[in-house]
Amino acid sequence: MKRKTNYPLAILLNVLSVSAPVASGIWLILVYLQGRTVEKNDGFGKTVEVTEKYLSIPILILTIVLFAVYLILRVPLKNMYQQAVQDNEYDEFGMSKKKSYQNLTRKEREQMDLQKMADMERLLSSSVLKKIVKKGSENPEEDLNRLIGIEPVKQKTREMAARMKFEQEIKKEEKKNKNAPKTGGSMSGRHMVFYGSAGTGKAQPLYSKVLTPKGFTAMANLNIGDEVVSGIGRISHILGIYPQGKKAVYELTLENGISCRCSDEHLWTLQTETDTVLNRYRTLELKQIMQNFDRESYYIPVADVTNYRMHKGYLLKSITYIGEEECQCIYIDDESHTYITDNYIITHNTTVARIITGFLYQYGYIKENKCVEIDGNFLKAGSESGVKTKLICQKAFDGVLFIDEAYSIVEGTGEYGREVIATLIKEMEDNRDRFVLILAGYKNDMNRLLSTNEGFKSRIKEYLYFPDYDVSEMSKIFELMAHEQHFEVSQAAFENFAVRIEAERKLATFGNGRTVRNVLDESIDRHALHYGSGELSKFTVNGYPADDKVPATDCKYLLCGIDVSTEINRNVL
Q1: Would the CA dihedral through 183, 184, 185, 190 be positive or negative?
Q2: CB under 8 Å to 237, separation ≥6 — which residues?
Q3: Which pTM was predicted?
Q4: Where in the chain is the domain with CATH 1.10.8.60?
Q5: Has residue 235 got a pLDDT over 70?
Q6: pLDDT (tens digit, 9 = 90+) per residue, 105-136?
Q7: Considering only the top CATH level, what class is 204-348?
Q8: Which tens digits make up the pLDDT trace of 366-377?
Q9: CATH topology of domain 140-195+352-466
Q10: Among 21, 412, 442, 567, which one is most buried in terms of CB atoms within 10 A?
Q11: What fold does the segment set 471-563 form as a domain?
Q12: Cα angle at 35 between 34 and 39, to 5 degrees?
């Protein structure tokens, strides 16, 4: 350890180096002015005493020597004093020990606290923080069992829960027996990665307009944290911005003449003819709309210009290909996940993490049952990206930090992304007992993220793979979704669904739960047609045509075999 410079000695030597030659000079002058008394002959034979000026040679030599010493040691002694001040009045971070927080006056403390709060509010506002902090599962075991499919994830989660329970029992034994060997909590700092197959998203050209409280703003000019107007008229904040690269862009024109542009992967909340009767909405990708555009009518809702709420659906009249253009999408914190784009048209924008949070809290590995949920882009704040990342980690202390779309950290401005990664890794190590980090994203993208810094891989303890659902699992999802629409699913409908979903799985547009929902919507449309024409009056409870052995039944809320088509739509553009 470096030895500190002696502060009193440095002061003493500096004072002596100046005062000694000065005192000697003053002494020399006083002696000279005082003079000395000598006896002289007055010329008349008498001796008299006379005072005359006198320059003391010894004092003169001493003064010259002391001034010479001062000139020689002036710079070294000054440096010594400065070093002594640095060593004794400032800590290793350059902060004044005399002006530490504890030594400040009450007024100075209040001013400093206000400045800190202002800086924190600028980087992470209280309103945004309130929305990103979610409560972990209160019944994690039950919630885990209710999940359909993803057996590898469920098995791994159960293994971790069993380990937590096992270690909890050991800690109880250690408290009873003080002589028992102490064991550390292995779940502490067990950071994780969730990964799975890629899906499709939403995208609009950079020049597309999005409604904000100050009017319409181009998509390219939006930033994380900006306010936008949601599809239900609320002021919401942008939590994520995702560049999508070049996409095929189309212009959608409604019957009232208004239009907007988006990619073929963009999601739309809309109604078909059947939906308008049943007073429900569905969400479809534009490419799915185009597949059925010639034989289905779609009504896209438009916001009321006075309160911005969903007002009326207008018939989609035409879809025109524009060309390939740079696109991006946004994610907002409103529960409707919708925002208002050009001409007031409304468009559409983690359970396992919360279950794991619930287990960690239940077994005492985190002090609060909370999960801070953000995406990778949320951490970027220009030159203050590292500060914001550290602040987010601190807000997750005693809980879980879940970063979805984590690979977006390294997209775009690489310099700030590297700063975010460096800060995350430092927090993962320095505060591994304070919080658990979960990174989530698509497999290839997550590999790219983790390869940017070896510190990531060395600190990740668990990898949870989210596989695609198999046919039986998607059949269960199909049934649950049908129940939500107050329909039962017959045996024949299940059989046709299994054939259909096997064919869908081979398509590039396959999207697990999203594909199941689309098949269900299509089936309900067919069901409405068949029921209205009277065809279903001759079907049984099993969904097959009636015969002498099995009588017909009322199939108004029963999906039959003919309702679920086994053929995929081949009209893909």
Answers
A1: negative
A2: 127, 128, 131, 225, 226, 227, 228, 332, 333
A3: 0.52
A4: 471-563
A5: yes
A6: 788 878 888 887 888 888 888 888 888 888 88
A7: mainly beta
A8: 899 999 988 888
A9: Rossmann fold (3.40.50)
A10: 21
A11: Helicase, Ruva Protein; domain 3 (1.10.8)
A12: 135
